[in-house]
Amino acid sequence: MKNITLFYFLLFSPLFLFSQLTDDEVFQLIQNGSEQQLVSENSRMMQENLLYHAEMVADKLLTLKPESSNYNYRKGFLVLEIRKDYMKAIPFLEKAILKTDANYDAYGVSEKSAPADAFFHLATCYHLNEDIEKAKLYYNSFLAASKDKSELIAVTNLRLVQCERAIEAMANPVNVRLKNIGNKINGEFPDYAPVVSLDGSSLFYTSRRPWANGETEVFRDPGINQYPEDVYVSYLSDDSVWMEPKRLEFCLPKRNEATIAVSTDERKIYLYEDSTGNGDIYYTDFYASKFSDIQKVTDKDINTKYWETHCMVSHDRSRMFFTSDRPGGMGGRDIYMSKRRADSTWSNPINLGPRVNTAHDEDAPFVSIDNKMLYFSTNGEKSIGGFDIMVCDLLEDDTWSDSRNLGYPFNSTNDDIFYTTTSDGLRGYMTSFRKDGYGEKDIYEIYNDYLGVKNIAVFKGVIKTLDNSPLPEDFAVNIKLTCEDCEDFEKNRVIFPRLRDGLFMSGLKPCKTYTIAYFNASDSKVMYEESFTTECNLDYQEINRELILDVPNRAIIVPKDTIKVIDPIDIVSYKNLEFLHYFDYNKNKLYTDKGKLKDFIKEVEAQLKEGRPSITINVYSSASHVPTKTYETNEKLTTIRAENMKYDIFTYFESKPEFKGKVNVVIVSAIVDGPEYVNDSAKQKKYKPYQFVGLKTE
């Protein structure tokens, strides 16, 4: 995707310019060039964004003068800009700030100092490393040392605001479980822009990895020496492991193609492609067992001569959200929205306004299945550093609420962007750059307990053939949803099953009556029809169907025992389960396959098998006031008890494909309680009632 330059290298205009050098010519320059030639070429390359070659020359300069603040500045800047490796950049920039000069001469061989910008870049490194106090120190040092005309002053003032937000957010972390999804998906090359299917079984994403046959070697980016972008997909295996990713067939070795959105039925992928210059939104359709070559979205109000980086079409296909830096916005890149007209064209886009957009950049919009929660990323004043993921809510007047930061460690002080979720909103995937990563960008899976969708019914079904063969493309099954008591625009909708497994999904409104017709697209013959009314209470519902397609007889068979409606009324009827265990002194761990905890787990499993769609298990933990040397404090001991229980239960259910995503575990309390300790630890009956972990479902 188009390079977003976050750092500036401010140089005086060079006296002369050369054409871009080849690798061999750069090697010759390094071997034979004078120090003056090396300095001039290094400065020119940095100014023209030829950073890969610039770093090669900077390495040579450092062999000549290893302690030079000037040369260490160049190296540190390039490490940070090319790979964002802030930890490796810090030692170079620490040397750079030892001698700075506001009148820095980038082309002078006698220049021993670094520019004042070195303070800014060092501050950036510490900011990314979550060392906020050092970041503030060096941001302020930059302001004191820089010239008033520096373009980095405004950026620095923004970063200082973000630092204060980071301090507050890090002191009040949110309850999330975040993990790198592993080296099957992530690698040494950038992997990013994940789009997860609503059922969580497929993951489309972008990678800059090389092609195995070497076809992409000659198409590396001349600036940063990266391979072109390609789109990959991985599917979740039956044992909940991501399978070996597959590069999609429309990718070309010389072209950048990056994922931005995938339709619910996985028959259309929206892409970003930049061969036209600024970058535009493209799409590809699945036809004849493969995706076609990409085509530009032709609507003149979507793609313009300006920069359009991202789009997302809502799951009911009624709205498109996209980003653009066109004139007339709030500043930087803004998020716009268009509504689908009756003739399937898009209305004139509207800017989502100051509750969403800022004077800075907004990007990567994603809307929940109920169209009521809009996720996006911003690098403005609400961020704690880099891009942060935000969320806002659709209000009754069809406008959006003020956006709010999803908190730390959901967001880090680095770039966190491209967030998409499964249908319930509790599991998502995003791009981030963190210390446990494999490369410059990695994809992370994140679970939360506070972003679940509400007040919606999800219609979820699967169509299989009699012989379990894939659905035939030449016998297209369309599913028409008619809302009998909705507004005109929402009355009719057609959805399509996924060809790879027959799954189909759609969000429905609560307290509405729907007619569902299954028909063959070639002749519009209705093969099966049914009606039902969604529940009215404000919660998440699922309406499940399993159907069999009899292709020769052009008929739909509906097994009677597969029709089930899962709704909150059913959930209320389930007995709440409880578990309580008293620990001996300093003990903190139980096992899900032993004792009464095993019995509790089996009861939860039984309710899920009976049709309960999801369960929240609340964890309550306590430690007594009896001192503990093993765990330093009783507060730490009770926290360990709670976290062990949460991790073990969550891991157990996530390891079972039939229960994955259905069990949410929340730590409600982890306290120190009971009578004060008076040197009487032998009185176990006195203190044991306050050494426990308890579980309760809801």
Indicate the topology.
Elements: H1 23-32, H2 35-47, H3 51-64, H4 69-83, H5 86-96, H6 117-128, H7 132-145, H8 152-171, E1 176-180, E2 191-196, E3 202-207, E4 230-235, E5 246-247, E6 258-262, E7 268-273, E8 280-287, E9 290-291, E10 295-296, E11 308-313, E12 319-324, E13 334-339, E14 350-351, E15 362-367, E16 373-378, E17 388-393, E18 404-405, E19 416-421, E20 427-432, E21 442-448, E22 456-465, E23 477-483, E24 492-495, E25 503-508, E26 513-520, E27 526-533, E28 540-550, E29 555-557, E30 564-566, H9 568-573, E31 578-582, H10 595-609, E32 615-623, H11 634-654, E33 663-672, H12 684-687, E34 692-697
Parallel strand pairs: 22-28, 32-33
Antiparallel strand pairs: 1-21, 2-3, 3-4, 4-5, 6-7, 7-8, 8-9, 8-10, 11-12, 12-13, 13-14, 15-16, 16-17, 17-18, 19-20, 20-21, 22-25, 23-24, 23-26, 26-27, 28-29, 28-30, 31-34, 32-34
Helix pairs in contact: 1-3, 2-3, 3-4, 4-5, 5-6, 6-7, 7-8
Walkthrough of the structure:
The chain is α+β, with helices and mostly antiparallel strands and 698 residues long. It folds into four domains: 23-171, Alpha Horseshoe (Serine Threonine Protein Phosphatase 5, Tetratricopeptide repeat); 176-448, TolB, C-terminal domain (Neuraminidase, 6 Propeller), CATH 2.120.10.30; 456-568, Sandwich (Immunoglobulin-like), CATH 2.60.40; 574-697, 60s Ribosomal Protein L30, Chain: A. The chain starts with 22 loop residues before the first helix and ends with a strand.
